[in-house]
Design a protein that fits this description.
The protein is α/β, with parallel strands linked by helices. It folds into two domains: 263 residues, TIM Barrel (Alpha-Beta Barrel); 101 residues, no CATH class. It is built from 15 helices and 16 strands. The strands form four sheets. It has an eight-stranded parallel β-sheet with strand order 4-14-13-12-11-10-6-5. A three-stranded antiparallel β-sheet has the order 1-2-3. The radius of gyration is 20 Å and the shape is globular. The termini are far apart. The relative contact order is 0.13.
């Protein structure tokens, strides 16, 4: 824990690296996976459960929190940390992605985005300055610039337009950021699947001297090989002394491949959303508990798992809960999934520190390839 935001790399193995981000509210071990607490809660989980699994930081969402309960209200109640009973680091996104994907009607111009709430149709304006103001009201430790994230595939002309607008918004976001002990502002690299645009964006953002750098606009419809290629194109042009965050990613395989390419931070709704829909992530791959073959399966998800949800309940019982629509099924599978994600990150950190990341990579891939029948 530090009064100043800082990042230190402790070990590297190829491009993979492990280190520590320090904030005034606690340290974040990297590579790190951040559970998504969209509206001030990691769905189906208690805050202390999330911390006990090994999460050092969670993500909050500007779009959802500005609409309900409102940033000013959260500030009046003591800030987001107190509001959701999470005294540890919080990263907030800028709200841009949700405006583009969820808002009913929206109009984008140089100033920002005017949109109608998907909840009640109320009109709102989100500018770089307003996004930073909201994040300051929430009191988050890591705050993101406002950017425009477009869905891929898109024309090179459209990708370039959005990238250049995002750079202009980055300058405004950086100026509007409220400096405070232990707090940071991250820039977001855009450029779709066009290498030259990614490089230009990364170089321009580096000159703005953000505290960290995110790779955005991926996992939005493009194949994994395109995403990984863009990471490889971008990474050499980002400062090695600052954290790299791949936004909205992803599956366990995405995390493994991206860490191999030098990424330090991730967030994704995948483990929690999958848990609510009967899917479990394990060292044997993905298990669909809706399948009838689990109806009489006495085996647990993984007898060696640290998480009680994966270790102490039979697949037959989990299948029953899922098919019955019981809330407990969603809770147990979310718990198991977040636990597996944190175990995967801890395994990568240890492997990098020991100089055996390639072995860990191969062993992990082999486990997924064997499939969930290996657990029985």
């Amino acid at each position: 824990m530090s009064d100043r935001f800082s990042f230190k790399v402790y070990a590297t193995d190829g491009a993979a690296r492990t280190g520590l981000i320090s904030t005034s509210r606690g340290d974040i071990r990297t590579p790190a996976f951040m559970p998504v607490g969209t509206a001030g809660t990691v769905k189906a989980m208690y805050a202390d459960q999330v911390k006990a699994l090994g999460a050092d930081v969670v993500l909050g969402n500007v779009y959802h929190l500005m609409l309900r309960p409102g940033a000013e209200r959260v500030a009046s109640l003591g800030g987001l940390h107190k509001f959701m009973n999470w005294p540890h680091p919080i990263l907030t996104d800028s709200g841009g992605f949700q405006v583009m994907s969820l808002a009913k009607l929206r109009k984008l111009d140089e100033n920002g985005v005017t949109f109608q709430s998907h909840i009640d149709g109320a009109r709102h304006v989100l500018t770089p300055e307003r996004s930073m103001e909201i994040q300051n009201l929430l009191g988050s430790d890591i705050q993101m610039q406002l950017d425009e994230c477009i869905k891929l595939p898109a024309s090179d002309k459209e990708v370039e337009r959005a990238m250049r607008l995002s750079l202009r918004w980055a300058e405004r976001s950086r100026r509007a950021f409220t400096e405070a002990p232990g707090r940071a502002c991250f820039g977001i690299v855009q450029g779709g699947g066009v290498p030259a645009l990614r490089v230009e964006s990364a170089k321009a953002l580096s000159d703005m001297d953000f505290h960290g750098y995110s790779i955005g606009g991926l996992a939005v419809g493009e194949p994994q090989d395109v995403m990984l290629a863009m990471i490889e194109e971008t990474e050499p042009h980002l400062p090695i002394s600052k954290p790299r965050y791949l936004m909205g990613v992803g599956s366990p395989d995405d995390l493994l491949e991206s860490v191999k390419r030098g990424v330090d931070m991730f967030d994704c709704v995948m483990p929690t959303r999958a848990g609510r829909h009967g899917l479990a992530y394990t060292r044997f791959g993905r298990v669909n508990l809706r399948n009838a073959r689990h109806a009489e399966d006495k085996a647990c998800l993984d007898e060696l798992a640290e998480c009680p949800a994966a270790r102490d309940y039979s697949r037959a019982y989990l299948h029953h809960l899922v098919k019955s629509g019981e809330i407990l099924g969603m809770m147990l599978l979310t718990w198991a999934n977040l636990s597996y994600y944190q175990e995967l990150m801890a395994g990568m950190r240890a492997a990098i520190a020991a100089g055996r990341f390639d072995d860990f990579y191969a062993e992990t891939k082999a486990g997924w390839a064997r499939g969930d029948s290996a657990a029985g």
